[in-house]
Amino acid sequence: MTARLKEKYLKEIMPDLKREFNYKNIHQTPKLTKIIVNSGVGKSTSDPKILEVVKEAIKKITGQSPITTSAKKSVAGFKLREGQKIGVKVTLRGERMYEFLDKLISYALPRIRDFRGLSKDAIDKEGNYSVGVRDCTIFPEVEFEDVLSGLGLQINIVTSASNIEESKKLLLLLGVPIKEEQ
Prior knowledge:
Shape: globular
CATH architecture: 2-Layer Sandwich
Order of helices and strands: HEHEEHEEH
Radius of gyration: 18 Å
Number of helices: 4
Distance between the termini: 40 Å
Strand order of the largest sheet: 2-3-1-5-4
CATH superfamily: Ribosomal protein L5
Largest sheet: 5 strands, antiparallel
Strand content: 15-25%
CATH topology: 50s Ribosomal Protein L5, Chain: A
Number of domains: 1
């Protein structure tokens, strides 16, 4: 069974993009490459149990076991030592990537209070989109009691688009709620 969003991409979005940007081949059309979900946990330097709670929450959200990330440099101001565990991250590809994006668009983002759309300025020159989520309890799998208050996530949507215009069109057709000019 394929993901609903992947089917939509293959049947509707890919032909639309090919027609709009006058591509000679369907393989030139921009597509999603991967989605990276990342959470830095600065509090874990004092309490290592926090890292396990965050790891379990991200595992529930993405359906994939995350890896722990370590500090690359020592920073005395943050009481951080090189090699110390400071966060977790997951790289989603294929079916899980489309399922996660569908869940983000359909269930999680509408649960944000006073949500009016995502910023159009978050697309970089390579066509990748970055979203910051302040509280991971917007995802239906995570119970408020299970997670630390205010656990934030950084979600990077990596596309094969070569410029901002192609990436924005791809994301809009996929259903990502990007707000237009104010």
